[in-house]
């Protein structure tokens, strides 16, 4: 494990072809929460995402090819542990997550190991309609029962983790292509991590287009239901405190890191 940081958390931004938005997103975050460090995990982008992120002041891990959010986040968790961070938070590189909510979501770690920035918990105007919304409601009810606490937005990627959560994620966060937020959350709960949620607001993308059309979003959430079944059937994992910290060479893209 690295030397413990005296203050601040690590903000992890997985990014794939976000050259249009990543620079402004980083600068906005730095302005509002300058006490935190930013790590951009460039997930095999074909554009100038890595260069622009580094020029904006972020540390950058460059993955040689696109692994999906799961693989990018696992690299970020390993980096956080190795470099002594006791807290980390995932923030979208397209600017949809309001930086003003970062410290609020991190504050949820005072009572839990994983804190979710929830879009449907009484703040903001974000909404989802039709089958996508119905699936999200069902998933939230099932996982709330597993967690023993009310959760309204279990598909949110705006999440923070303390050291226990980071170790659990590092070992068990699904790293396959399009690693699933549902799977990672259920496995964390079954391994003994406590989960809470904090109401947040969502902003419009700063640039580019959403990766999911309504139809693709529906397919994704239907897939999430299947993933949920597999996650619930998985055996309980070992205690995160038994997991060995990453060493040199364990972090994908580290050789291409640039501050």
UniProtKB/TrEMBL annotation:
Residues 11-162 form the Glycosyltransferase 2-like domain. InterPro entries: Glyco_trans_2-like, Glycosyltransferase_2, Nucleotide-diphossugar_trans. CDD domains: DPM_DPG-synthase_like. Residues 238-248 have a biased composition (Polar residues). Residues 238-259 are annotated as: Disordered. Transmembrane segments: none annotated. Belongs to the glycosyltransferase 2 family. This is Glycosyltransferase family 2 protein. It comes from Sinomonas puerhi.
